[in-house]
Amino acid sequence: MKRYDVLVVGAGPAGLSAAVEAARLGLRVAVYDENARPGGQLFKQIHKFFGSREHKAKIRGNKIGEELLQEAAAAGVEVMLNAAVIGVFAEKEVAVRVNEQILCRQADALIIATGASENMVNFPGWTLPGVLGAGAAQTMMNLHGVKPGERILLLGSGNVGLVVSYQLLQAGCAVVAVVDALPRIGGYGVHAAKIARCGVPFYTSHTIVRAEGVNQVTGAVIGELDKDRKIIPGSEKHLAVDTICLAVGLSPLSLLCALAGCAMEDNPAKSGYVPLVNRYGETSVAGIFAAGDVSGIEEASAAMIEGRIAGLAAAQRLGFLTQEDLDARVAVQERALASLRQGMFAPGSRGQTFTATTEGCPLSQNLLRQGYLTDTELSAYPGVVWAEGLHPIIECTQNIPCNPCRDACPKQCITVGATAGQITALPIFDAQKGCTGCGLCVAACSGQAIFLVDEEAGEITLPYEFLPLPQKGEQGLALGRSGQEICAAEVVDVKTAKVFDQTNLLTIRVPVQYARQARFFRRAP
Amino acid sequence: MVNKTADVLIIGGGIVGCAAAYYLVKGGCSVIVLEKEETIGSGGSSRNGGGVRQSGRDPRELPLAMHGIKNIWPTLSAELDCDVEYCQKGNLRLGQTEAQLRILESLTQKAVACGLEVRMISGDEARQINPYLSEAVLGASWCPTDGHANPLAATLAFYRQARRLGAVFISGEAAQEIRQSKGQARTVTAAHGVYEGGTIIVAAGLGSRPLLNTVGLDVPLQPALLETLVTEAVAEMFPQMLGTAAADFYGHQSARHGSFIFGITSGYEFCARPGFPRSSAAAASAACRSILAYFPSLADVKIIRSWAGWMDDCADHVPVISFAAEVPGLLMACGFSGHGFGISPAVGELLSEMVIAGRPSLDLTELRHDRFVMK
Amino acid sequence: MMLERGDIGGYIPAPDDDLLVCRCEEISQGEIRRAIHDGLFTLTELRRFLRTGMGLCQGQTCGRLVKAIVAKELGVSPAELEPITARSPVRPVEMRVLARNQEQKNG
């Protein structure tokens, strides 16, 4: 039976990162993935990542995927696609279905990086065509170029729900509602704000009562929930939709770990049934590692770090790295992981209710419930400084691990945290440093939360990722943060540049009294 | 600490223990069943191919099979208020070589001598009964009164009905020791409590041996690995139970559901490593090759699940169903050797007779525990 | 975990009992609830009795839903329930494909 030093199951961010680390140290590594394309979810994650430079922040997921594949190829990793691992047996024997046969392979270390699957909820009509997972919708749009529907109801306001809603808008779908049973939006405020200003309404404390339709979804009824999560009679509301996307969480795809005999636990903090792992990602079975979502649902950035750690540990186990080298390298990775796992949305913060940022700024309750900041709430945050002339307004109001805005500014006008590792602090804008209005921060902000404003001129430069791009001189409407129409607007500039990485800078002019409110441009129909 | 008393204490919540519990509560006894796993029917009861057959059986246990098929199985679904998917459409035991046909011939002659309606048929006759059979089949034994049922449903149906009638089931409770009181088997010490019974029935599969050892008895049982494959549901193809002279697989298509279930052997089941029973990649593949040699048209049917389990293989491959004269009040039913499912309702009924009437209605002398004589 | 399989009260129909839970095997919430009240207390027993999670997706879709129902009926947290056993193949494989594997260990 053919043997490798390391076999990796899953060519997603964790698996590829693990493979690259191990192969760079001289191990013979093969990666199996059941999909026709490598990269796991990365290639459909067309948004810019959060984090800091070491986490590949402000780079889009698909780009990160390409980089990882290049690194894997350069390191000599054998990536086998359309190769579904169907079982893990004794002595790290892996059975793989490739085309019309089963291949059995063995390895001295096995890294399971199988990721996650989408959770489902059931409600009357949930089996109708037109009800699908948000991840599935994302695959249709971003990998296959197919619109999942025209009028969408999105259930679930976690980051997946918010990101997919935005991408649905980019694909030209109407997102009729984002519904969540919880009283608060589950994902980042900046993601919510991005779609709220496009006019997408949020229904928190609401749920789907039923999907309507005979052969496919033709509508949905939602209802408001009381404190006991029962539908309040009379609160039902009919929505004309043809598609219902479910973004109600992910579950670790950990069956292979269980099959391999790894000790498992059902851990709600890790979103499900996961293998018990040590600091290196090693399971209870010596030489079998788990990395990425399979050992607990997190962001792709965390999965890549976990993958690297597992790859290094596998190398150490096989004698390609000393224990000291391993620990030194792992310590670096652990610091990177720790900086990602901070803030109000971190795994350790689950279940906690926050009322203020660590800086002491009150959290916008409106942002948490409706997805947008009100004009009056805005001035409480250090990124919002109403200065003369052109300057950024940083509408970043929650402690999330992210700092590309700081790195983007050539004049060091923006600081995030007192030290390099502190990346969840709210960005602070210093007007004294001499902002030139270059707009690099606007394009760099993964949350699209930075706007350049010139109050005197009534000009707002906003991040814009919709096609076709409006033309200079085009007339349209300015929308406020809540998506309401405010006033007429004219496009006065459209900037695209390689460094912006497809976040275009659209400058609109509005009557000066609306400069603090106008945050989106709607083209004339 | 749990302290419970019943007329009958049954160790083992497999189909034998559940069936005995059912017939005993029906007969008016109070019953406690202790099952070491959390789930009822975790051993061989959920790891077998569902055969309800007489053909191919050792003459010593054949009467039990014939009794069950004549008197119990036909009405079992109604009795247990649950479709146990009993299907009595015959059993084809297939041969591909002359040597295999001779094995079938010999078994057939023995069964006929016991009064079973079974005969040898040609390959073409077999293909008339089952048109999906390949030309490689040279002949078969054919027993029209054999059949199959769903072992998972049957086990849980006995459990459910016994529980409805008042039997007490405690799972996740591993019996550790049987103790006597004044010369009579009386109590069972388990992980979480001590249980007392007027009669103690040991029906704990492989676990029976160490338990019997605690009262100075021994039954020669060894673990042997059995692996099972299940397919996706497909349209109804054929209703017969299948077996082969080569013993490379056996199985059937579920009458209600449409999936095929195959018990498979790899030739290495007697030296499987101890511990949790694990299936292997090689055995499933070997079984598929065997099955397709008999049934080429199953080529595109998908295997969706495989699992493995331990058979409590007895030294002479037939069970022990017996009182222990040395330890009054103790009754044992174990060593079913991989073919216990079909006779399990009959065994349950016989055990209840042994408790209530003091003796079984069928002669079980040849299944006594003291039959093992060294050469 | 020890289960003293006592009475948890009879099955009381709920308005949403006809809701489908397991799509592959077409099992409703009511069938699951009824079975639980009839003494089928573990996820494995329900699988074996009703076939929930035993279809083509092997419970990937309904696993959580069934778990939530059992936990609610038994009054425990879903994480306390003993999980079902993982089985190979974790993806359905045609018999002709599975047959094409002649590899041996130590070879």
UniProtKB/TrEMBL annotation, chain B:
GO cellular component terms, A-Z: cytoplasm
Keyword Lyase belongs to the record: no
Record keywords: Membrane, Oxidoreductase, Transmembrane, Transmembrane helix
Highest taxon of the lineage: Bacteria
Sequence segments annotated as region (Disordered): 40-59
Keyword presence, Cytoplasm: no
Compositionally biased intervals (Gly residues): 41-53
Protein name per Swiss-Prot or TrEMBL: Sarcosine oxidase subunit beta
From TrEMBL, chain C:
Protein name as catalogued: Bacterioferritin-associated ferredoxin
Biological classification of the source: Bacteria, Bacillati, Candidatus Margulisiibacteriota, Candidatus Termititenacia, Candidatus Termititenacales
Domain BFD-like [2Fe-2S]-binding: from-to ranges: 20-71
Transmembrane segment boundaries: none
